[in-house]
Write a structure and sequence with these properties.
Blueprint: E1 14-21, H1 27-34, E2 39-46, H2 53-59, H3 63-71, E3 77-80, H4 93-105, E4 109-111, H5 112-122, E5 127-131, H6 136-148, E6 152-157, H7 164-168, H8 172-186, E7 194-197, H9 208-215, E8 219-221, H10 222-233
Helix pairs in contact: 3-4, 5-10
Pfam family, one: Amdase
Protein name: Aspartate/glutamate racemase family protein
Organism: Haloterrigena gelatinilytica
Length: 252
Amino acid sequence: MTDADAPDTADVRGRLGLIVPSSNTTAEPEFRRSLPDDVTVHGARMALEAVTVGELDAMSDDAARAAELLGHADVDAVAYACTTGSLLHGPGFDAELEDRLSEAAGVPAVATARSVVRALEALDAERIAVVTPYTADLDAKEREFFEAAGFAVASIDGRGLEANTEIGALTPDDAVRQVLECVDGGGDGDELDAVFVSCTNYRSLAAVGELESKLGVPVLTSNGATLWDVCGAAGLEVDGIEGGSLVERDRH
């Protein structure tokens, strides 16, 4: 969509605030591609180059200020679009983060880790497989988070990447191959309720349809779950969001 094609301000039905790591090149395009022209996306960034425990922890210091600034744009809701950044400190941190950002922005806020939990609950999923681009230490934190939230993690597979630009260079085809290798290689396909592809910088939303067709179970991505959740928080009914089985479910 060019500037000439952009909707007139009077035609805008909703505004979504999107807080992303500074090195994220995926969340904004995936959100924009999935939304109709009358729902606009407005971004704010937090400094992060490497997806490590230390940098993720430091990045969270910028979150409230980013939310406050998005509130100046009169957004309807704010999304903190970073998976590991919203589960880093274990159970409850995701909910605390949402409360903090909501207070700063003056509107409802969602955080990706909590959005994924809501999405899995909406799908009645209990046993899941998780695919990530992360290192083993972050995969361990992600497993702990989902198990504490009540899900059985049948398998978790990471790529061992730290540089967020390398993660952003991954393609939907990479996601398809990684998921199929993880699920088929682990023999979990017939026992799963859902598969989750983690990381808002992993270009995987476009892979959901193919993966659901091959696996026969719902497939979630970080951006897909976050987009579904923030639209619900904003009270926006949006047709045609990319995201497979999830888009048919109501937000709890």
